[in-house]
Every structure is written in structure tokens, then in C-alpha cells.
Design brief:
alpha/beta; ten-stranded mixed β-sheet; 24 helices; 730 residues
Length: 730
């Protein structure tokens, strides 16, 4: 398989090695959520196989194309254990543990993100969709957009996004924000997380944010809207219900209670061994309840499952030592020969055993200090098919936004936590039933399938908006009308219309989607394509990669120079006096702006241009004023044009209106479609007749009848015209 319509990019592949050396599906909600979608779309999944220095060729697994990304042992240490889990993880979890900032970690993070982005770009189909997952890959969306602007890109952030006061500590905060804003849809667990992200964008990048939309400027001078909003993730609730209803698992739940001495109440905590989960806080509260005599070890047992996590990271090693010492003290102080105060289990269990534990437990303790969602809370609720049990839930977990019938708690408030634990232990069966039925309804109605469907629907809407096919009906009708003309001239500006604007203009090139649309128009019957630019003819040919056998007409220098297929260059006579004046004024302009940072002079066939794209506003104004005075003193008759951060001066008066008129006459066109993005294109747009069509790329005031937001949208519009022209002759 070489191309996929949907590509998921995650740190890990959705498979693990089995003992026989083969592959088996990994446990986890994300894999469960996306498996049906991946099968339906014949999608691809890009990820790390899970072991360092292992080279695995792409392979098929149960209907999904898997694309392994190799990481060295050093990269695992620097990118994953270092920057991802010792910088981003603690920073994004409210600095519960101090984050460390190391440049070598950041450099590895950039390298690995680039490798993931390259792998996704290679496997994604033209116009496909890529969905990037989580904090290890925050740079991938922008890298993908730069490499493949035809793609629709989504990103989902599974962990919290911090308040700006914390996020601003990150030395590479701008790069991370710019990386995430490469996506069309940026999803978060909570509304508060999306709000924190939007505030960071406003404070750091000064981009406009409104509701869930962020206006993102692009290099081509246009803007697009990125959607940043909450899409709270969930679980495969039906699978937990099915397990909980199995007689063997219900029998196992009874065995667990008996093995614990059949206490009146079992409290349960199920967490990764992580400082964000609040395990120390619940142990402290539980220990004090035993000390105060409010709970008795004869009546209540706490089962704490703490699955191993990041065991090579120093903060996690310290945490394990502290928790195990605390458990040892509590058990030493309060255990009896028949009952254990805390049953501590530092290991992972299969899902069947976990569901049995959920059924055995009377109270589920979720005391996270900060958590993106906490799916364990939802797993417990889904498993309680008897509508009994109490969920005690930290208000700092994302699940608290949805599970309003839980007993909410601030885990930092130890006295409040103790009172909440007592309330849960003593809650009547009737109140348990009322609360649990409401909780289960929410979890079952908003399961993981609904989550993935909501996110992919948002991506689909973004794709429709980016491709331009969500044009108003009157715009679509205009395309259909002009496609019916006898001979159509499609005249197109280049910079900002087909190619992104560049600080170095000679680096400009058509976006791949724009070139494909132009090629489709050239192959359509009775259709002529022309490029109309302020560039000199020679420069235009170079950046457009225009060859002598090309079928594309060119109009350079705003229509003062032409190139026609089969004829070649058609250049006007140049008066030596005009050329001498041009060179003298250009030299004076270069001297006047030599010390102005970010200002440079571009030679042109019939004048020159003053570029200020890299200059600040004050310097730009000074440059314009200085050069205006130079030209006004010796050549007040010259034409002055303004464009995107450029002022052009020319001794010829041709404009794009005259260029379009000349091209219409030369090609025998019965109608013209002209598209441009700049002020200099308005001459052509104003000159169009009733049977023609003007298209503006961008958001400023224009005479064009049709607007599109950016270059990819224009490319889609042009491809649509080519399709209509071709269908008309079939």
C-alpha cells in the first residue's frame, strides 16, 4: 500500500510483539476507537514499534497499514524520556514535579518529530487526512502542512494544556504553538484546555482568536481558520458492559472480596505510578482516617493498583519509593492477622481482571492532581451493571466535566478528601443507584466511537472549507456558467495565488495542488492558461519552472512582456535613456536603504521594487518615504504600485488589465477567469466583462465576484473548473 486516505500518527504503533515474535493488538482506548475507522478507510498508522534500534518494514495488520518509525536508544532517552516526559509532561501537569529544560532534548524532539512527519507525508494520499496524537508529536502538524499543504490535518492533545503563566516557562513555546497551529482542528479534553491554548496563542503570537476559531496567517499572505475546541475522549463502554455481565468475571469479583477478608467496603485506586495521580494524597487521607478511628481495618480495605510507568525517570523512581514506604507504614500500623489495610499491587493487569476489581470495589478513588481525562473513572462506571458503587472524582480530572453525579473532591484538601471518602463509604444504596444510573447513561451515550466520529466530522468540515467546495450556491453557479463558454482563458497571478509568498522571491514555487490544477486545465478542451505577474518575464519563467515547450502563456512585468507557445518571448523595445534612468534610480534607492534592516531592492525589467516583508513597520515606512522622494525628484511620471510588503516603480504604464486584454485577443477567448490576491490584481478584476469571472484569494476588499481563503482552496476551485470543462465535452 502506498497511499492512505486516513493516516494516524502516534508515538506508538497499535500493536505489540507477542512471545512468538508476531504482532498482537495493543490494549488501549485509542486503538479501540480508531480500529473500525482504519479498517473502513484502509488507513495507515505511523508509530514507533516500542523497542529502540529495531528496523521494521511497513506491514499490514488486520486491515491497517502499519508504518514503523525507528528510534535509536539515544533518541528514546532524549526525545521520549527526556523532552516528552521530563519537560512537557510535568510542565503541562501544573508543574507538580519540576520540569527540566535541556537543549539536547529539544533538538532530539525536533529531529524525531520531523521523522514522524516525513513518514506520514510519504504514505498519505493526495488530499488525504492525517490525525496526529498527543504531546510527543506537537511539531508534526506544521511540518506536515509545509510538506503537504494538500492534506487536512488534525491533532488531539490527550493531556492537559497548562495556563499561560506555566506554559510561558517553556523556552520553545513559540515553536510548539506554531507546530500545533499547523493543524486544521486541534482537539483538547476540556474546554479549559482549549481556552488555555487560545490565550497562549494570543499572548505569544498575537493571532486573532474568536470563539473556537484561531486566525492563522500563512506564508502566502492569506489566513486560514484553525478550530481549537474540546472533544472529550471516552471508552468502548459496550465492551466493559459485556465483560461485567460475564458469569466468570462476576465470580472472580466475589473471589477478590473473599481474598481480602470480605470487608464491608473495598476502596479501589487504579493508576499508573505517576505523581499526577494523587496517590500520595489518598494514602495520606486514608491513613489519617484509620488513625482517627473513623475507619477500621476490620471493615474497610484499600486496594491500590499502581502499574509501572517510566521507571528510568528519576522522579518516578523517587515516587515509587515514597509510596511504598507510606504503604508499609500504614500496613505496619493497622494490619491485623485477618485484614490488610492496603493491598498494594505494583503491576499491570488484563482488562478482565480489572473489570472484576471494578465489580468488587464499593468506592472508586480518582484523586488526580491534574489529568487530561482519566478513563479509569469511565471504565468503573461502565462496569457497574448493578448500578451500585460510588465514584469519588477529583475536580482536576477532565472526567469531572462530564460525570457530574460523582462525588467531587479537591485532593489537595486532605480534610475535604477524608470527608468525601467517609461520605462514599456510608452512602445508601438508593443514593448510589441514582448517581450511578446518571453516570452510566452519560458514559454509554458518549463512548469512544462517538468521540472519534465527532473529531473526524470536524476534520471533514475543515476539509470542505479548505478545498473551497463549500462555496455559496451563486459562486458554484458562476463556475458552471463560465465553464460553458466556447473558449476559456484562465489567467492567474503567481505569488500569493499559486505559490506562497517568500522572503526570498526567487524561492517561490507553485504548491503541488496548484500545479496539478493548472495541468488539469491545460488538458481540458478549449481552455488556455496564462500566468500574469509583476515579475520580469525571465524571473517568472524561472519560478514557474516554465520550459520552451510549455503550453502556458506568460505576461511579465504587469503585461509589458509576453511569452506565447510556439512563438517565444515577445518583448517591447527598450529606450536606452529609460534603462539608464532605471539603473541610476535603483542604485540610489539601494544606497538610501542600505542600513535599513529587512529592506532590499529587487531589480525589474522596467524599474525596481522595494521589499519590506522582513522589516518592522517603522523601517518599512522610512524606506517607502526615502525611495518615494528619490523617484519623485527625477521620474515623477513613473508608475507606482503597492503590493504585499512591496512598492514597485516602473517607467512603463502597463497593468494587468491590459495584459488580460492582450491575452484575450491573442487566444480568441470568449470568456476569462482571472484570479489574484494583491492590490495589483484589482486592475484586471475591474476590467472583466459580464461574461467573465474574477476570483480573489484572501480576505481583503476586492472587485472579484468569488472569494476563496487560500491557495489550496483556489487550486480546488480551478480543478473544479477543469472538471466542468471536461465533462461538458464528454
Amino acid at each position: 500500500m502506498s497511499e492512505a486516505e486516513l493516516v494516524v500518527v502516534a508515538n506508538r504503533l497499535p500493536v505489540d510483539r507477542d512471545p512468538d515474535g508476531g504482532w498482537r493488538t495493543s490494549p488501549g482506548g485509542l486503538v479501540t476507537a480508531l480500529d473500525p475507522v482504519m479498517r473502513k478507510t484502509e488507513g495507515a498508522w505511523v508509530g514507533w514499534p516500542g523497542k529502540p534500534d529495531v528496523d521494521v518494514e511497513p506491514f499490514e495488520f488486520e486491515g491497517t497499514h502499519l508504518v514503523p518509525v525507528t528510534l535509536s536508544a539515544e533518541e528514546v532517552e532524549l526525545y521520549y524520556e527526556g523532552f516528552s516526559n521530563d519537560t512537557i509532561w510535568p510542565l503541562y501537569h501544573d508543574v507538580i514535579s519540576p520540569p527540566r529544560y535541556r537543549r539536547e532534548w529539544w533538538n532530539a524532539y525536533m529531529r524525531v518529530n520531523k521523522r514522524f512527519a516525513d513518514a506520514a507525508a510519504d504514505v498519505a494520499a493526495k488530499g488525504g487526512t492525517v490525525w496526529v496524537q498527543d504531546y510527543q508529536l506537537q511539531l508534526v502538524p506544521r511540518l506536515l502542512r509545509d510538506a503537504r499543504p494538500d492534506l487536512t490535518i488534525g491533532y488531539f492533545h490527550h493531556i492537559p494544556f497548562p495556563a499561560y503563566g506555566l506554559f510561558s516557562q517553556l523556552p520553545w513555546r513559540r515553536q510548539v504553538l506554531e507546530g500545533l497551529l499547523g493543524a486544521d482542528v486541534i482537539g483538547f479534553q476540556r474546554v479549559a484546555d482549549a481556552g488555555n491554548f487560545a490565550r497562549a496563542v494570543r499572548r505569544q503570537l498575537r493571532f486573532e482568536t474568536k470563539s473556537s476559531g484561531i486566525r492563522v496567517p500563512e506564508q502566502n499572505g492569506t489566513t486560514r481558520i484553525a478550530l481549537a475546541k474540546a472533544f472529550p475522549i471516552s471508552i468502548d463502554a459496550a465492551s466493559y458492559v459485556a465483560l461485567a455481565e460475564r458469569p466468570d468475571i462476576q465470580a472472580r469479583a466475589a473471589e477478590i472480596r473473599e481474598s481480602l477478608g470480605n470487608p464491608k467496603r473495598i476502596l479501589l485506586g487504579v493508576d499508573r505510578l505517576d505523581y499526577t495521580k494523587g496517590i500520595r494524597h489518598r494514602l495520606k487521607a486514608y491513613g489519617e482516617l484509620l488513625q482517627e478511628g473513623r475507619l477500621s481495618v476490620d471493615d474497610v480495605t484499600l486496594v491500590q493498583v499502581a502499574s509501572p510507568s517510566r521507571e528510568r525517570v528519576e522522579a518516578y523512581m523517587q515516587l515509587r519509593d515514597e509510596i511504598e514506604q507510606t504503604v508499609g507504614r500504614i500496613d505496619g500500623d493497622y494490619d491485623t492477622m485477618g485484614h490488610t489495610a492496603v493491598r498494594y499491587l505494583h503491576q499491570a493487569y488484563p482488562r478482565e481482571e480489572m473489570v472484576a476489581l471494578f465489580l468488587a470495589a464499593d468506592v472508586m478513588l480518582v484523586t488526580a492532581l491534574r489529568d487530561g481525562m482519566n478513563l479509569v473513572a469511565k471504565e468503573y462506571v461502565a462496569s457497574r451493571v448493578d448500578n451500585r458503587g460510588v465514584l469519588l472524582l477529583s475536580e482536576f480530572a477532565g472526567a469531572a466535566d462530564e460525570l457530574g453525579s460523582a462525588v467531587r473532591v479537591n485532593p489537595h484538601d486532605i480534610e475535604g478528601l477524608k470527608d468525601a471518602m467517609m461520605r462514599a463509604v456510608e452512602m445508601s444504596a438508593g443514593e448510589q443507584g441514582r448517581r450511578m444510573r446518571a453516570l452510566r447513561k452519560r458514559v454509554q451515550e458518549h463512548d469512544v466511537e462517538a468521540w472519534s466520529a465527532d473529531f473526524l466530522e470536524a476534520l471533514g468540515r475543515a476539509k470542505d472549507g479548505r478545498t473551497g467546495f463549500s462555496l455559496p450556491a451563486e459562486a458554484e453557479a458562476a463556475l458552471e456558467r463560465i465553464a460553458r463558454t466556447g473558449r476559456l482563458l484562465v489567467a492567474l497571478d503567481f505569488d500569493g495565488t499559486l505559490a506562497p509568498l517568500e522572503d526570498e522571491p526567487m524561492n517561490a514555487r507553485m504548491l503541488p495542488t496548484a500545479r496539478e490544477a493548472v495541468d488539469a486545465l491545460l488538458d481540458a478542451p478549449d481552455t488556455v492558461v496564462a500566468l500574469v505577474s509583476g515579475r520580469s518575464l525571465a524571473d517568472l519563467r524561472e519560478i514557474a519552472e516554465h520550459t520552451d515547450d510549455s503550453r502556458i502563456f506568460l505576461a511579465g512585468s504587469h503585461g509589458a512582456e509576453f511569452w506565447a507557445p510556439g512563438i517565444g518571448a515577445i518583448e517591447p523595445h527598450e529606450d536606452p535613456a529609460d534603462a539608464e534612468l532605471r539603473d541610476r534610480l535603483r542604485e540610489r534607492a539601494e544606497a538610501a536603504t542600505a542600513q535599513m534592516k529587512g529592506v532590499w531592492i529587487e531589480p525589474k525589467t522596467f524599474g525596481f521594487g522595494v521589499h519590506t516583508r522582513r522589516a518592522d513597520a517603522a523601517t518599512s515606512a522610512s524606506a517607502d518615504l526615502a525611495v518615494d522622494e528619490i523617484v519623485a525628484a527625477e521620474a515623477p511620471h513613473w508608475r507606482r504600485r503597492t503590493g504585499h510588503n512591496i512598492v514597485e516603480y516602473a517607467f512603463r504604464d502597463e497593468g494587468k488589465d491590459s495584459a488580460v486584454a492582450a491575452l484575450r485577443d491573442r487566444t480568441g477567448a470568449t470568456a476569462v477567469l482571472f484570479a489574484g490576491d494583491d492590490v495589483t490584481d484589482e486592475d484586471a478584476l475591474v476590467s472583466l466583462g459580464a461574461g467573465d469571472l474574477g476570483v480573489h484569494v484572501g480576505g481583503r476588499q476586492t472587485a472579484a465576484k468569488v472569494r476563496v481563503p487560500d491557495i489550496p482552496a483556489l487550486a480546488a476551485l480551478l480543478a473544479r473548473v477543469a472538471e466542468l470543462r471536461s465533462v461538458r465535452r464528454e
